[in-house]
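> tool_call: predict_assembly(chains=four)
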Amino acid sequence: MYHLLFDQKTRSGRRFEALCGLFALLSVIAVFIESGLGTQYHLTYDEWQLFVALEIGFTLLFTLEYILRVLCWPDPRKYVFSFWGFIDLATILPLYVLWLWPEIGVNYVFAWRAMRAIRVLRILKLLRYMPTLHTLWQAIVNARHQLILFYSFILIVMVVAGGLMYGIEGPPNGFTNLGTSVYWAVVTVTTVGYGDITPHTGPGRMVASILILIGYSVIAIPTGIITAHMTNEFQKQRNARLCPNCHKGNHDEEARFCKSCGSALPKL
Amino acid sequence: MYHLLFDQKTRSGRRFEALCGLFALLSVIAVFIESGLGTQYHLTYDEWQLFVALEIGFTLLFTLEYILRVLCWPDPRKYVFSFWGFIDLATILPLYVLWLWPEIGVNYVFAWRAMRAIRVLRILKLLRYMPTLHTLWQAIVNARHQLILFYSFILIVMVVAGGLMYGIEGPPNGFTNLGTSVYWAVVTVTTVGYGDITPHTGPGRMVASILILIGYSVIAIPTGIITAHMTNEFQKQRNARLCPNCHKGNHDEEARFCKSCGSALPKL
Amino acid sequence: MYHLLFDQKTRSGRRFEALCGLFALLSVIAVFIESGLGTQYHLTYDEWQLFVALEIGFTLLFTLEYILRVLCWPDPRKYVFSFWGFIDLATILPLYVLWLWPEIGVNYVFAWRAMRAIRVLRILKLLRYMPTLHTLWQAIVNARHQLILFYSFILIVMVVAGGLMYGIEGPPNGFTNLGTSVYWAVVTVTTVGYGDITPHTGPGRMVASILILIGYSVIAIPTGIITAHMTNEFQKQRNARLCPNCHKGNHDEEARFCKSCGSALPKL
Amino acid sequence: MYHLLFDQKTRSGRRFEALCGLFALLSVIAVFIESGLGTQYHLTYDEWQLFVALEIGFTLLFTLEYILRVLCWPDPRKYVFSFWGFIDLATILPLYVLWLWPEIGVNYVFAWRAMRAIRVLRILKLLRYMPTLHTLWQAIVNARHQLILFYSFILIVMVVAGGLMYGIEGPPNGFTNLGTSVYWAVVTVTTVGYGDITPHTGPGRMVASILILIGYSVIAIPTGIITAHMTNEFQKQRNARLCPNCHKGNHDEEARFCKSCGSALPKL
C-alpha cells in the first residue's frame, strides 16, 4: 500500500501525489473566492452553506489523506515529525479549531486556510526529478559562501543606514523607532520603495540617495555570482564527458558521437 | 495576389505587412492624442470631427485589409480562426459596435481602440527572421523547466505570504481580503512597491521585511538561468562549426578560415 | 593652438579638457547650493550677490571657452554645428537670456543652468580611451537586434496594458486618459511603482498583478542578452590571440608567453 | 598576548574576534528591542533599569576590549588611528557622552548605539579567508573602469533629468528645488519609486516615462559587466592549472588528476 500510494518512484505513487496537490490547489482557490466574495457582496445563507460544505469536504479529504499516510508509512513517527507531516497536520486543523473555539477571529482562520498553498508544493516536488535543476542547485551550493557574505554585508548596511536615518529624521518624520528605520532601509535598498516612510529633510534625502545608490550598485553582485557559477557548472558538465577513444571533452550535452574521432560517447 | 501581398518571403509581401503595421501605429497615436486632448482641453466641434474622420478612415482601411486577407488567403478559415485573424477582426469592431450600441461607455471604446497596438507587432514579426533571436529563444526553451519551477515556487510564496499578512494585519490596515493580500505580496516580491497597501504593525513589518529579502535574494535566479543558458548556447554554436580538414572547433562566428590549418570553414 | 588646447591626443589638450569639465562641475554644484539655500532659508542681499557673482564668473569663463574653441578649431562650422557645439552654446545662454527677458520664470533659469551637468561628460570622454569599454560596446552592438526587439515588445505590452486598465478602472480611479494609463504601465512594468495611480477594483488588481508578473519575468532577458554577448566577446578575444609558434589560443589577456610551447605571445 | 587574542592566524585569536562580534550583535539586538518597546508600550521603571543595566554592561565590555587592544597591539598608534580603532572608540562613547551632556536628544543616542552593527562586520572579516571571494573581488577590480564610467554617466543623467523636471513641474508639484529634483531622479532611475514626489503634468509624465525607460534599459549593464568578468575569471583559473606532464589546461577546480594523461595535478 505504501508503494502504491506514496512511493514516488512508482507511477501510481506519483499520480496520487499529484491528486493530493490538485485538491490542495482547489481548496486554496475556494478559500480565495470565499474571502473575495465575502468582503465585496452580501452573501445569502445558501451561498455561505456552499462554501462551508466545500470546506468540510476538503477538511475530511485532507484528514483521510493524513490518516492514510500515518497508517501506510513504514515508520509513522518519521512522517509525523517530518516537515510534510507538520504541514499536513497544520493545514487540516483550522476547521477543528473553529469548532472548538468559535470565538477565534475569522481572518485568522482565513489566513490559516490559505497556508494550504504550501501543500501545492507537492506538485513541484514531482518535477524535482528533472535533471536540469541539478545545475542550478549545484551553482547555488558552490556560491553559498559568497552569497552569505554578500547578504550579511547588506543586512549590516541596512541596520547602519536605519540607525543613521533615525538620528537624522527622527520620530516626527515617520521614523518612529529603530525597527521602523531598518524596515525603511530594507524597503529602500531592495528598491521596493513603498513610500509610506520617506525622508523629508535635506540631509535625510541626501543619506537616502547615497543608500539607494549603494543598493543599486550592489544589486548586480548576487546575479553575477549565481550566473558565473551556473556558467561554470555548464562548462564542467561539458568537460566531464570525455570521448572513451581519443579522450577529448567539450561535447554538447545532446551529442552522441565524439566530434573528433566519431566514437560513441557515454550517456549523461 | 496572396504571394504579392501576404507572403512574407516576397519583398512586396513584407512591404505590405510593414504598411499595415505603420497604419496600426498611426491609428494608436491618433487614439492617444484624442484621449489626451479630450480630458485636458475642451475641444470644439470641428476638432472632434477631425478625430472622428480619422477614426472612420482607419476603420475603413482595416476593414479593407481584413476583407483582402480573407479573399486572398488560400484557406480563409485558417486565417479567420488564427490568432491574427481574431486580432484583426477585434480591432476593426469598436466603431461598428459604437454605431449599434451608442450607450456603451466612451472609455471602453477608447480602451478597445488602444488594443490596435497589438497590430503593431506585425512590424516586429518582420524582424523575426534575424538569426540572432534564435539563440535567445533556444536558451529560453532549454531553461523552461527551471523557469517554470522557479515561477511556481514564487507564486506559492506569494500566496503563503499574502495569507500570513492577512492574518497579521487584517482588514483595518488595508488587507481587506485574501485576494488583496496576495496582490500586496505580488507588488512587494517583484519590488514594484506601490505603497497603496502597507504593513502598519510591528510583526507585519517584520514579515514584510523577510518577504522582501526573500524576493531580493531570488531575483538573481531567473537572470542567472537565462544568462547561463544563453552563454551555453553561444558555446554550442562555437563548437558546432568544425574545420572540415583538422576537425578543430571553437571558431568565432565571423571567422572564415580555420585558425589551426587555414582551410575554409563551412558557413553558419 | 588647437593642438595645445583641444587635441585630446596631446597631454595639454587632455588637461585643458579636464579643466573645462572641472569648471562645469563646480558651476553645477554652485547652482545646486543656490537652489537649495534659496528655498530653505531667507538669504540676505549680500549672500545673493555672492551667487550672482559666481554665476557671472562661470558664464564669462564658458563664453571665453566657447570663443576660444570657435577661433582655434580648424573648421569652426564643424564645431558650432556639432553636438558639443550646441551644448556649449546652450549652457552659456541662461544669464544672457535672463538679462534680455527678466520676466522669465526663475525656475526655468535654474533648470537651464543645471543642464551644465552635460558638460561634465567631457571628463568621461577623456576616459573613453580605456580599452575595456570596447568589450562592452561591442557586446551592445552585437546584441542590438535582440535588444531593439525586446524593448519594442515591452513598449507594445505597456500600451496594451495601459489601454486595458483604462477600460477596467477608468477616470474615477486615477486612470484619467490613455496617456496616463500608459504612464502607469511604464511605472509598473519597470518596477518603479510610485503608487500615485493604483488599481482599486478587483479585476484591475488582477490585471495589474499579471502585468507585474510579466514585467518581473522579462526583466531577466536584457541582462541575459548583454551578459551572454559580453562573455562571448571575452571568449573571442581569448581565441583571437594565437601563439605564433604552435597556433594554440585561449591565452589569458595578461599572459606574455604561450602556455604550451613557451614562445612569446603577440601583444593585445 | 597579542597573538593569543588578536592574531587572526591563531585559533584563539579568531575565537576572541568571533566573541567580540557576538557581543556587538547582542548589543545591537538589545538597542532595537529597547527602541521598539519604548515607542509602543509604557515601560515600567524596573523594565527601563534592565535595559540601562544591559547598556552599561555592554559599554564596560567594549571599553575593556578597547583597552586590551590598545595595550596588546605591538604599535598602539597603528590600531588607534586605523578604521577599526575609530569604530571601536566611537561605539563605546554614547553612554559616556550621555553622562556628560544629558540634554542630548535620546534619538541621537539610539542612532549612535545602532552604529555598533558595524562591529558585527568583525564576524564577516573572519570569513574573508574563504578563497571563493577572491574571484568576485578580482572581477570587480577588473571591471572597475567600466563600472566607474557607467555610474558617472548615470549620475549625470540623474542631474540632467532632475534639472529638466524642476523646469517642467516646478515647486507647486513637489519639485521644490534642484536638490529635491535630483533626489526624485535618483529614486526613479534606480526603480525605488517612493511616490512622495511624482510628476503631475502631461509633459512631466512623458519625461519621467522616458527617464524610467532609460533607467530600465541600463540596469542590465552593471550586471552584465560583473557577470562577464566573473565568468572570465573562472575561465582564467581553469586555464591557469596546467598538467605538469602534457601541459593541457581546462581542468575542473576539484579535479586531482589530468583528464588526458592521468598525472597528478598541482593543487589550487
